[in-house]
Every structure is written in C-alpha cells, then in structure tokens.
C-alpha cells in the first residue's frame, strides 16, 4: 500500500509535465490511457476500443502480472512510471511513432479540432478521512492542479484547443481500496468502475469541460468546509468517514 501511495503522489507531481508534453506532441491520432490495465482505466480502454479507437495503455504494472485482464485488441501496452519525466517523454515519442500522436489523454474523448485532458481525483480531496492523509493530500493536490491548469490555459488563450475535465469520485470497486470497509453503503455507495467510465466518456463526448462528481453525494461534499465545525463532525459520524479504516489499526 505504501508503494502504491508513493506512486500516486509522484504521479500527481508530474501531471503538469504530461500536459505540457502532450500539447507539444499531440496531433490527430490515438487515445492515451494512463493506468489502463485495471479498474476505471481498464473499463475506459474497453469502452473506447469498442468504438474502434486505437488505445495506448500506459501502466506501471507488468502486463503479465495481471492474468485476469483480458486481451484488448486494437490497443498497445507501454510499461511506464509516470513519476519519471524522462521515461514519460520517451514513451510519448514511442506512442507517436507507433500509433500516431494522441489527441486524447487519460480518460478522454476526442472532439473535432479540440482535445481534452481529464484528471481523475476523489471526494477524499474534500473529506480528508482519518488514515488516508497520503492519498487525500495527493488527490487534493490533483484537484487544485486541474483548476490551475484550466485557469492558465484560459489565460493563455488555449481554451479553444483544450478542454479540461476534473472527475472526483467516491470509493470504487477496484483493487486499490478493496481492503477498506465502505463507510456507509446507503449514503455513500461503492461505485462500479464501468459506470464511472461511461459517465466520463459521455461527458467528454458532449464537450464543454467541467467537473464530474460521482455518486450523488459527491456533488455536495465540496461545500463541507463551509459547515460549522460541529456540523462537520456530526456529518462525519453519520457517514462513518473516520471509521472506515478502524479495522486496519
């Protein structure tokens, strides 16, 4: 778990570098999905591949270590550590040569004469669960980075070329957090990755940029900090936010 957390934090730190390199090398071409061997990334790869798209899958995992993941035709896998900026640049050059320059980055859909960048964050960026300080802080940083990049692109006049989407999801049924007890299945149901992927693809296809929050409760957690402290603590108690990791002590 500690190793995965380091990867998450390091990955957040270089997303801006990915965005820069992608805008430099992009052209009409393939779809680039980072972390596409499992979970939400894998579901997104399958959805785009079903549409006939060529997908470049970047993942730190070894493909052979995931026998449960079926072969995905019309896709090509590249082992890549996104915390290594030089490795990312080399892989992007390789993708450009083999599949064409990607005009879709991460979990995005191409729009004619426009491109999209989608950052996958989490509701923990606003809820700060006890025991998840490393993960929550990295996701909070990613959400902030999204807003900064979108503002900078708007300021520099790139909004006609690039659309930015931020996705903040609740707990999903993926291996990363399978060991965590869902805090409240009624108020905060666990998301199926395929459902989230479908919502992302649909929203990006519609265009316009913006923030996607799933499930329903994720739409109001951003207002959590505006509540009085006592109300916040009561809400945390009702939701079971801080008890989710109690069995892991």
Keyphrases for this structure?
7 strands, alpha/beta, seven-stranded parallel beta sheet, globular, 7 helices, NAD(P)-bd_dom_sf, Rossmann fold, disordered N terminus, oxidoreductase, 249 residues, NAD(P)-binding protein, 2 domains, SDR_fam
* Rg estimate, integer Å: 18 Å
Total number of domains: 2
Any idea what the shape is? globular
Rounded mean pLDDT is: 77
**Roughly what percent helix?**
40-55%
Instruction: Please identify, by name, the CATH architecture of the largest domain.
Output: 3-Layer(aba) Sandwich
List low-confidence stretches: 1-16, 20-28, 107-112
Number of helices: 7
Query: What name does the CATH topology of the largest domain carry?
Result: Rossmann fold
Strand order of the largest sheet: 3-2-1-4-5-6-7
InterPro entries: NAD(P)-bd_dom_sf (IPR036291), SDR_fam (IPR002347)
GO molecular function: oxidoreductase activity, acting on the CH-OH group of donors, NAD or NADP as acceptor
Family: Belongs to the short-chain dehydrogenases/reductases (SDR) family.
Protein name: NAD(P)-binding protein
């Amino acid at each position: 778990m500690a190793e995965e957390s380091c990867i998450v934090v390091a990955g957040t730190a270089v997303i801006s570098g990915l965005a820069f390199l992608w805008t430099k090398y992009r052209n009409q071409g393939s779809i680039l999905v980072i972390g596409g061997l499992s979970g939400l990334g894998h579901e997104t790869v399958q959805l785009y591949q079903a549409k006939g798209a060529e997908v470049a899958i970047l993942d730190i995992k070894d493909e052979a270590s995931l026998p449960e993941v079926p072969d995905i035709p019309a896709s090509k896998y590249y082992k890549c550590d996104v915390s290594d900026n030089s490795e990312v640049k080399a892989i992007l050059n390789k993708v450009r040569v083999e599949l064409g320059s990607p005009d879709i980055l991460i979990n995005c859909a191409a729009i004619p004469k426009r491109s999209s960048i989608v950052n996958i964050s989490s509701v923990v960026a606003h809820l700060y669960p006890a025991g998840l300080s490393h993960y929550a802080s990295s996701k909070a940083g990613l959400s902030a980075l999204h807003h900064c990049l979108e503002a900078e692109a708007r300021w520099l006049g790139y909004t006609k070329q690039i659309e930015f989407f931020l996705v903040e999801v609740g707990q999903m049924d993926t291996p990363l957090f399978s060991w965590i007890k869902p805090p409240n299945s009624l108020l905060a149901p666990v998301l199926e990755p395929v459902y989230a992927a479908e919502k992302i693809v649909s929203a990006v296809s519609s265009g316009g940029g913006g923030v996607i929050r799933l499930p329903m409760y994720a739409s109001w957690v951003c207002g959590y900090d505006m509540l009085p402290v006592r109300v916040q603590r009561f809400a945390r108690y009702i939701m079971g936010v801080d008890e989710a990791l109690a069995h892991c002590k």
